[in-house]
Write a structure and sequence with these properties.
309 residues, alpha+beta, Immunoglobulin-like, 2 domains, 4-stranded antiparallel sheet, globular, binds copper (II) ion
C-alpha cells in the first residue's frame, strides 16, 4: 500500500504540486486577511501577534504539500543537473580572433596630486606574520603612477563566447597578504589559491553572482582550486584570521583585461580591430571609462589619471 502511494505520488507532475502549494498559500493569505479585517488590526503585526491560531495551521498545509512535492521531485527528478555553480563547465567558444589583424591597447595609470597616506599594516597579532609594520596595499602610488587598477574592455566586443584560457591564475598568501592584491580571471578559468606562509590562513570571498567559499588553509595544505561561473566585478576576498588581508577578484566574460603594475603600466593584447569602451577601476577611487579605437595590427596608447577624492 505504501509502495503504491509512493509510486502514485512520484507519477504526479511536480508542476501540479507547485500549483497546489500556490493555491494553498493563496487560501492562507485570504484567511489571514479576513481575520485581520475582522479584528480591525493591520495585517503585518497580525502575522506576529493575533493570528497564532490560524497561521501555523495554514502553513502546516503548505508544508505538507511541499513535502509531497519534494517526494515527487525525488521520485522523478533523477535527471536534475547538479546545483554546483562554481564548477560549471565553460560554454564552447563561438568567437575566433584573427591574430594577423589583431591590435592591442597599452598604457599607464597615473595618480595626480598627493597620494593619501595609508596606515601601515600591523600584523603582530600573529607570530607567523611579519613583525614589522607593512605597507598598506589599498593605495599604492610610485612616483605618480597608480598600481592595482583593474583595466578592462567594458563595451564594444563582438557578441558571442570567448575561449576560456586554460592558464591557471594564482592567488598566493605570502607575508600575510594576498599576492596579487587585484586580480582578473575569466569565468570558468581555474584559480589556484596557495599558502606560502608559515601562518594559517582562512580565505573567504564575498561574491553576489557566484558561489562563495570560506576555507582554512594551513601552510602544509594542498592548494585550493576554484572557478567562477559568472562574470562579476570586484569580489572582495578576506582572511578570517587576519583582518587586514584583502584582495579583489574580477571575473570577466572575455580575456581583455589587465592590472596596472607598480609603475602604472598595463597591456591588453590580441584585440579584434574595433571601437571599445575601456574602463579602469580602483578600489578607493572608483571607475573611469574612455573610448578607444583599435586598428588592424595597431598598438593604441592610452592614459588614465586618478586623483584623491
Ligand atoms: Cu590570513
Amino acid at each position: 500500500m505504501v509502495k503504491f502511494l509512493v509510486l502514485a505520488i512520484s507519477a504526479v507532475s511536480p508542476i501540479l504540486m507547485l500549483l497546489v502549494i500556490r493555491l494553498l498559500a493563496f487560501i492562507c493569505a485570504r484567511v489571514l486577511q479576513f481575520r485581520s479585517s475582522d479584528h480591525q488590526i493591520t495585517r503585518s503585526p497580525d502575522l506576529f501577534t493575533s493570528s497564532e491560531s490560524s497561521f501555523p495551521l495554514c502553513f502546516k498545509g503548505v508544508g505538507f504539500s511541499a513535502l509531497i512535492a519534494l517526494v515527487a521531485l525525488t521520485g522523478c527528478g533523477k535527471s536534475q543537473p547538479p546545483s554546483e555553480s562554481s564548477s560549471a563547465a565553460p560554454r564552447p567558444a563561438t568567437i575566433t580572433v584573427d591574430a594577423s589583424t589583431a591590435g592591442s591597447i597599452a598604457g599607464t595609470v597615473s595618480f595626480k596630486g598627493t597620494a593619501p597616506k595609508m596606515k601601515p599594516l600591523d600584523m603582530t597579532q600573529d607570530p607567523g606574520c611579519p613583525s614589522q609594520p607593512q605597507p598598506a596595499d589599498a593605495v599604492v602610488v610610485n612616483v605618480g603612477k597608480l598600481a592595482n587598477v583593474f583595466v578592462y574592455v567594458k563595451e564594444g566586443l563582438p557578441p558571442g563566447t570567448f575561449a576560456v584560457s586554460s592558464e591557471t591564475v594564482v592567488l598566493d598568501q605570502k607575508g600575510c597578504r594576498y599576492i596579487p592584491h587585484m586580480l582578473g580571471i575569466m569565468a570558468g578559468q581555474p584559480l589556484r589559491i596557495t599558502n606560502t606562509d608559515t601562518a594559517d590562513h582562512n580565505i573567504h570571498d564575498m561574491p553576489s553572482k557566484n558561489k562563495a567559499f570560506n576555507e582554512s588553509q594551513m601552510p602544509t595544505s594542498k592548494p585550493i582550486v576554484k572557478t567562477f561561473a559568472n562574470p562579476e566585478m570586484m569580489i572582495p576576498v578576506q582572511c578570517n584570521q587576519h583582518p587586514w588581508m584583502r584582495a579583489y577578484i574580477n571575473v570577466m566574460p572575455h580575456p581583455y583585461f589587465a592590472v596596472s603594475a607598480s609603475d602604472g603600466s598595463f597591456a591588453i593584447k590580441n584585440l579584434p580591430p574595433g571601437e571599445y569602451t575601456l574602463a579602469a577601476v580602483h578600489e578607493k577611487f572608483g571607475e573611469q571609462t574612455m573610448k578607444v579605437k583599435v586598428g588592424q595590427k595597431m598598438d593604441t596608447d592610452v592614459r588614465f589619471a586618478f586623483a584623491a577624492q
